[in-house]
Amino acid sequence: MSKATGFLRLFRWAGLIPFVVIVGGLWVGGYLFADAIARSLLQSNLTRIQGAQVDVGSVDVAWQPFGLVAEQLEFTDPNQPTHNALDIGQVALQLDFLALLTGKVLIESLAVDELQFQTERSSLGRVVTRAPRPERDGPSVTERVVDTVDLPSPRDALERHGPLETEARAQAARAARDSAVSDVQTRSEALPDDRTLEEHRERLQRLQNQELRSLEAIQQVRTEVTDLTSAVARDRMAIDRFIDSVESGEQDIRGALQALVGGPGADVNAILSTYNLSSDGQVALAGLLLGEQWAGWIEDGQRWYATATPWIQRLQDRRRERESVPTGVQGYFVLFPEDNPIPRFWLREARISAQTAGGDWSGRIVDLSSDHALIDRPATLEARSTRLDAAEAAALDLVWDRRVDNQLDVRFDVDRWRVSGWQIDDDDLPIGLRSANTDLRVNATWRNGWSGGMNWQFGDARFGMPAEWRSGNVLRQALEGVNRFAVQTELSGSSVVPRTSWSSDLDNQLASALRDIVGAQFAEWEGELRAELEQRREELEAPVRAELARLEDQRREWEQKRNDLETEVVETLASFERQLTEERRTIERRADEERRAAEERARQEAQEAERRAREELENRARDALRGGGGLGF
Amino acid sequence: MFGPFLGPVAKLLKAIASEAGPWQIAWGFALGMLLGVTPFWIHSFVILLLLMVLRVNFASAMAGWALFGILSLGLDHGSHALGEWWLTHPGWQDTWTALYQSRALQLLHFHHTLMLGSWVIGLLLLVPVAFGAKAAIPPLRLHVVPILQKYHLLRANKANTLYGRFVNVWRGF
After folding, report:
1. CB nearest to A14's CB, from B77, B88, B173
2. How deeply is A112 buried, as exposed, middle or buried, from its count of CB atoms within 10 A (0-12, 13-18, 19+)?
3. Nearest chain B residue to A16, by CA
4. Where are the domains of chain B?
5. Residues A473-531 pLDDT 10s
6. What is the pTM of this model?
7. Complex prediction ipTM
8. Residues of B in contact with A103 (CB under 8 A)
């Protein structure tokens, strides 16, 4: 057997037949059942992402070029299973088959036709995961605005206003009073009592009555005077400190009371800005009319965002997949640089036509990708109205750029939008904007937070409200005078739903008109409110003022005692001390004179004695001379 | 509990008990192993083609496929780690990048961590498994097959099963 024959014996060429049969069978089976398989896969995957049942009417897979056409796609609304969040008549997409086999989804073109929102389902849709329902915090715009127009009684206004500045300042005054009383009480413990002061006087009296005839007596009295002076000084210092603390407390209390006097004024201003008819107040009627509308749109937006979140996350997850290496046994594709890189997901172009309750739209999405940096282009969405019931034209432009940061630019314009029948569904304030011609411009950007805002111009405005409403007559008169106004909104915040701050000249116009109409009534109300607050202030400050008066009495009493002590004891002591000094000097002077006189007498006596001695000697000598005729020599 | 394992083992034992050559059984088992440890993709059709056109034992290949398909559940962690290590190794980046430029090569999913790792492990195991299987067949035929035949454990009516019918047709070639 030759080597070639031996090698060929390794093969059984007939085995090609079953291989071809199996592979061919798989191919033919796949070809024949591709539509059903694709429909099943599409339904299960879309249901998983949507979180609710997605029905696909039919799918037609095309092989050259590769793509599919799906019809009658119904996306159940997870929060309202009786309705479809989306109802799409037909979706036709063309895919890059080779890219798909390499793990990338490259959609060359996508056409979405007959897109409708919130259509009723024929049967209840199955819900897998419910989208979070958007919540609104705080009082509704209506609740806030009802407060601004329907004036309550002054007492009710005070109760509804919440913490009053007057009360806060009264509290501060009470705190100052308590602090002063405590300090004064501490200082009063060191004060001398009346008995002590009397003892000082008696002791001084006794000292004054003592005989001062010798230096020893003066010295003794002087020592006692020094002791008494020290004791009086201590008591006087205690009195001084006490009076100082009383004065300081009085000063604090007077300051707090002074501030309290201004409390009602501050409260009146604050309350007037709440029950606003001034230009710098809160959004009142504009907020009422547009705020509910806006809040409704925000809720719609939140609901749509919640619905779209799984789809957006799917894009972001794919992006994260590239940035962080996942673990697990599924493995992942490692991407390397290439000349014409393709991101994991790339929708080159989509054309969408939609029918909404307000009209028909056509849109175009370009370059929606999981990696904008890779394709070096942002995703763009353009939507234009083709027919609108209540406006001439509308245009929405979105640019989503994730090349460097995550930035979204939104521009939304509506021209000649005829709004009508904006009635607030609230019995307390049944007011409405009957009709107006408006132009809306929204220009916003999200980049680590929202910026930009909305400018909405209203013209030919006509308002309406029932005549029986309490404030209706005056408001209606004011509203009739308002024909044009503008509303501006500034967007901020970093959450998906932006925070909005409103401003509008509607309130100013209304305020001006209302001031003219109800100026007197409002002034009366303001006066009543001020009187109510003044009365409340007086009630609150009464105990503080009483305490202040008591402190003043206490201060005066001790000032008098200090003066008495000063005049009766301190000054007398000083005088007595001077007297003692004088007495001492007198005694010393007298003693000195006596000493000098004694010395003079002693000197004179010595001289006399000497003279006598000398005379005696001379006499003896003379006698001797006389007796002996001579000296006897 | 052991149900999923019994089918492939029975197929393997029947193959061993058959008159097929040891190398046919061994290489069939090894190629089946390669099918089992790698994810099913385009390469799998190539291996299937080899199984069909090479004179290897098809039953042992199916047994190897099934057995290592189950075992690969435990091997996948290692395969993924190995593939990831190799694909992200700095010294190999130029090579992988050069290969990546070809869309045709991308189709082979060589840049998939699990695919690359499992193929490396499968190819490394191919020859040892073939030789190991060849070495194990004579003792099994000598000691195990008689016992199984004694208890009629290998006498199932193959013709009554779809697989049996396929084998009968297969033997006709």
Report:
1. B173
2. buried
3. B53
4. 3-168
5. 666 677 777 788 888 888 888 777 777 777 777 767 776 776 666 666 677 778 888 88
6. 0.55
7. 0.81
8. 109, 112
